[in-house]
Amino acid sequence: MYASAVLVTVLCVTVFSTGLTIRIPAAEHLANYAGWPFRVFGRPQRMQQSQQSLPTLETDALHASVKFGENVVGKLERLEKTLAGADVRVRPGTPSHGQLIASNPHENALEKHRHAQVAIRASQHIADSQCRRLRLKERYCGELINTLSLEGTDLQSQCESTVEIICNTTSPYRNIDGTCNNINHPSWGRSMTAYKRMIPPKYGDGLYKLRKSHSASAPLPSPREISISLISDKDKPEKEVTAAVMQWAQFVGIDLAQTPSAKMIFTGSSISCCKPDGSNLPPRSVHPFCAPIAVPSDDPVFNDRQCLDYVRSVTAPRPDCKFGPAEQMNQATHWLDLSMVYGITKEISDKLRTHSNGHLATSPGPARPLMALSLEPTSDCQGTIKPIGPCFKSGDSRVNDQPMLTALQTVWVREHNRLADALHALNPQWGDETLFQEARRITIAEYQHITYDQWIPLLLGDLYSKQMGLQKSDYSESVNPAVRNSFSTAALQFLYSMIPGNISLFSPERRSNTTLRLREHFNKPGVIQKQGILDQLLRMLATQSAQKVDLIHTEEVTHGFYAGELSNLGADALSIVVQRGRDHGLPGYNDFRSACGLPRMSCIDEFADLLPKTVVNLLKTLYANVNDVDLYVGAMAERLVDGALVGPTFRCLLGRQLRDTRKSDRFFYDLQGQAGSFTPEQLASIKKVTLARIFCNNGDDIKMMQPDVFYKPTTRGSLAANPKTASVTHCSELADLDLSPWREANQK
Prior knowledge:
This protein is mainly α.
């Protein structure tokens, strides 16, 4: 066991343990721990062979634990009926409703969540009956329990390995739900499956409880306390980078990941963790999936509230088919496949189509069609004042999140239909299904090209992108595409820092006379239906500066997030990000630095070389231990390096995931030799596409655009002189996709 240890952040005193050695077999799937480097009080270690292990558990004992888990979950039914009778639920139009829209779980996701919860409770039962008796530390207990297989128990049928998937290996088209991309592992990348881990989780009990402090004398600070202590609102714009970079980050983020929040298992009702006035619920009314965020008594904004809503994330059956720590669910597919446009299941996708001429469904707009309208606007949007404005539907519930995102999704729905029409003109013999699949295939290719050729080098730096192999095709069927939990839960959230508080609406001459206040438009997309607004929003993305990535965030997201129509106050996005990290058992910032090959710090004072001194001093007042600092907090405070827009830790997390996303994708747009590969002529045409031309082709009436919308336009230069900072030019001068290589031979 460990020797006693004292960690004093001021003096940087650390006593290292010799470490506990554990027997764990070779890894079989995503979430096993074998061979991973472990760190005890800051020193890297690798697990060695030892006699320390759980006693042999007979099948009957495992069955008994599963039965215990079923009983614990079953008892929720009575509680949930009581909560329903007491009308404890999310109120329409509130900030909690906005959070629910963003993380709304699919019915199938909730069913998987129920089975995952049984496995978690069974694992906790094993821990209580075995690990506590052996006096094992929580973390090692979770690792030991993860050596026990679910095979032979009632939960085996829920393992991904038992699901039979029939693949058409010669099809050139992706499956909507992400299956069959990898022929040998057809379930890899499937929607509603678990995230994977970069490093093992650190739950408070080793299995499921929220991460806790390394210090026995001081708990982790409230996420809201961190937000009001560290986060400020100042205008710190990028000099050359536009808001399109921020918006593309959200677009890619909602494609690769959606973490659903739990609903009641037996009733399907929403879960509320605070009273409508922000006071604490009585203990008998608190659902076990609640983890409300405590509001400090001296909070300068939420001074009349005690808590902010937070519902724990939906869990997924472990992909290794074992007992062990909780894994959260990614409801989206794990591929860069425009799932937010096309959906995550065939059932959803079919409802988004017209089933005529390959089109996606639309609704009338002031100039050109907009996205289809939701049939449940009071659920899918936050509007409550009648008449309720328009509410759109797409492949992802976040389509109405804010006007910039809604505008961008509209553009890509239009692009799909534009391509379907053009392909129909070239090949009139093609039916609806062929037109839909071919248009989808080309649209995804354009999107992947823009992401990897234009956006990633700007975000991570040209040199780093090349070093990571992010701009070359190098397919490997052994690379699992599963999105990392840390990528989704923390790294992608850097975009909140880049969001401008006010959205400037720009005329064709790039003059702004009108602004939209962001908090007034969360999940209220009616502004899109007004004449000329869509084009003004697209010009805004191509003109207004993004804010720098740092600890400065607009108040629109720190206390106006998902504000309703009846209140100026909303939620705090930063508090939600930090709480979700703890909910998911994400280790601290120091652990991820070490996993990225960056120096590990033994005390908070040592962060002075990486972070501003004022931030270091504040961290010392908030955290009792250097290893407690939350990943998002530390990574967002880092100084930027090598021309990247993010610091070294988030650059590592983003780069590794985006590398694996490309390397694992058999259908990646420029990969040759596969059933879905484009011809050299088709590929050359796709590589001409820019987001600027996409805006031109799919706005209402856009005539002028700079060649690269990720960079602000200048008044100097020309199209040929400096393509990254060139002046605005006529759309006809920008390269466009040539579809002639798609004409079938008998039509030439």
